[in-house]
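Components:
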Amino acid sequence: MAQALNGIRVLDFSHVLAGPIATNYLCMQGADVVKVESGKGDTMRNYGGESHAEGLGPSFVSVNTGKRSIVLDLKKPEHLAVARKLVAWADVVVENFRPGVMERLGLGYEACRKIRADIVFCSVSGFGQSGPLKANPAVDQIIQSMSGLMNLSGEPGSPAMRIGFPVVDTFTGMLASLAIVTALLHRGRTGEGQFIDVAMMDAAMVMMVSVAGPYLVAGVKPVKQGNLGYSKAPTADTFPTADGEITIGAIRQDQYEMLCKVIERPDLVIDARFADRGLRRKNAAALRAEVIDAFSSRTALEWEQLLNDAGVAAGAVRNLWDAFAHPHLQARKLTLPVQLPGEAAQAGNEARVLNAGFVLGHDNPGTDKPPPRLGEHSREILQELGYRQTEIDRLLAEPAEQH
Amino acid sequence: MAQALNGIRVLDFSHVLAGPIATNYLCMQGADVVKVESGKGDTMRNYGGESHAEGLGPSFVSVNTGKRSIVLDLKKPEHLAVARKLVAWADVVVENFRPGVMERLGLGYEACRKIRADIVFCSVSGFGQSGPLKANPAVDQIIQSMSGLMNLSGEPGSPAMRIGFPVVDTFTGMLASLAIVTALLHRGRTGEGQFIDVAMMDAAMVMMVSVAGPYLVAGVKPVKQGNLGYSKAPTADTFPTADGEITIGAIRQDQYEMLCKVIERPDLVIDARFADRGLRRKNAAALRAEVIDAFSSRTALEWEQLLNDAGVAAGAVRNLWDAFAHPHLQARKLTLPVQLPGEAAQAGNEARVLNAGFVLGHDNPGTDKPPPRLGEHSREILQELGYRQTEIDRLLAEPAEQH
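Structure:
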């Protein structure tokens, strides 16, 4: 059974997170992704300076499973020649160096399209290939600061708070993947390749469309409102319980009345302070106190069941490991088993990786190939490119240096 | 000049946010998106119960510009017949009703593929088309609770904190768009359409890959650490200044020394408490106090300039409207002007919408068409489907009811 991107060849010069996430999506849909690494390898192999068995640290495995790895020192002419042969082999080139680096290596878009006219070439960077900030260093945290992302979460008036994981990297990687697949579709229809410029800063703005859009259209400025929902109904919020917290969404009058019934407080329905939506917002603090009092008698998981059974949207606040353990996500087959070689396997539990996150009717995303050890496929790839055995031995004999 | 999805026809039954975001990406790349609405229209036209001029509220305009609108009452046989003709017309169907609704209307995937064998049919939902929770109501906040997203941001030990905008809706829409374009690529290569199942809950897990991945691979559980970076270096964090806050990323020894130089505190380099990374982490509170003291002499924007000039990654915490005003984002051409009809135009400022967020070498995303008024294109679309004038008059004469 063929996956959607079977036969598509991706030459991946990217490292760390956003670029590898982009090629992970391509890989999970059947593309042959060749990851070019320096002799030191992608820093994610040993993330945070920690050394991991066979260079297969968890962060690396998470977004590189199924790819192949070749080690090249792009400062050496004979290794650069290999890279150029790989460009001729490839349908897609992905890179996330700082703007200008690929050009200096002789591997920029213009150089690549001379080798392969219909190449789809995607550059992923912090600020993009144009604009006054293009040369600035960028990590997720800095982009979260500059984009406005850090001023959206938290209680009113609270200091800036970042989203506690590199959400911009992730979104950027996915946006790059979308752009690449779109360009492949375009190539299929017209025969033309093209250059794609994806930037973390741009991606952050697009990610905020639900608040950035209304600002652009009509000057509406978003305000922080903690966990309170957009309706500002005090019963669309997050509450403590006997054990854990729960988020509920009782907005309409019928939902409010059902909530009161489930928490066994029918008096709150007829309480003059809470008679309609306006009054409930006006007396929000008093209502919140009543709900907290009522919720103290059961756990968040118990309330979740009771409220959903009654048709009131409710979800206990979970940790992500509890979410994965939920029978629902087990049934969704969201993850894949991953084969780790000897030492790395012993270091982990039953290792799994996330699949692409969407389910296709046939030819589903996924891979049964392991994550690559550094340079694991160097020899095999050189053979595929037509190098003779003596040339391969010579190329592999010289220890590659970091580029 | 043709855009990548020119000639692709999308029949869009979706409403509110995740579905319309998916089709917005398709529209921005040239697809002809026909939005099917009930007589009441997409609730986002008048979001939060507020009435907007011509039903073109800012949230609606943000993600529906360039689409066409037809009003159909799918409970009426003659209107359902129009919908079925539109399926025959379409390359792609997108819907985000609760699972089962399209089947009951006679417009489920199996029914649609009988009309058009190679249809790409994408269902977007809260929990997906399978699994025990598939019938549960889902809004962004509930998914943020249940997925673990609300337990990632904030200070250690702090209560659950949602990301302050519907980030899951956005990510889900983009994931759906990626899946659809992939399926179109697949169709181009094989002639086959397919069914695509995209769920907000799945999307939330995939969005957290940077922390969910390491958990799945090796049982690593994420911990909250406020604005402190992953390095846990106390000088990779967010600080108050004379005016506003700033995030900096001084991790390596050379970056730390440069920071000390820029803030004119060379004594901190030789201070025994801060002599290396380990000591700085050990004496983090003391170092933070020193940095805050130093930063109090200038504004965040001044420090941003000084630090970047010295090669230390730094970004002032901005609001999103300040980010849009930055010369860099102005240069990136991230947004498009949008034409609003009379009344709606007067309500807004100079209205703009976000483009797709990536830049293509040619055939760039974008649209010069306005957002549709409710049913604006009903007549035109019926004509395109081949209905005669008398039939059209009859279909349009009957006021459609909400489905």
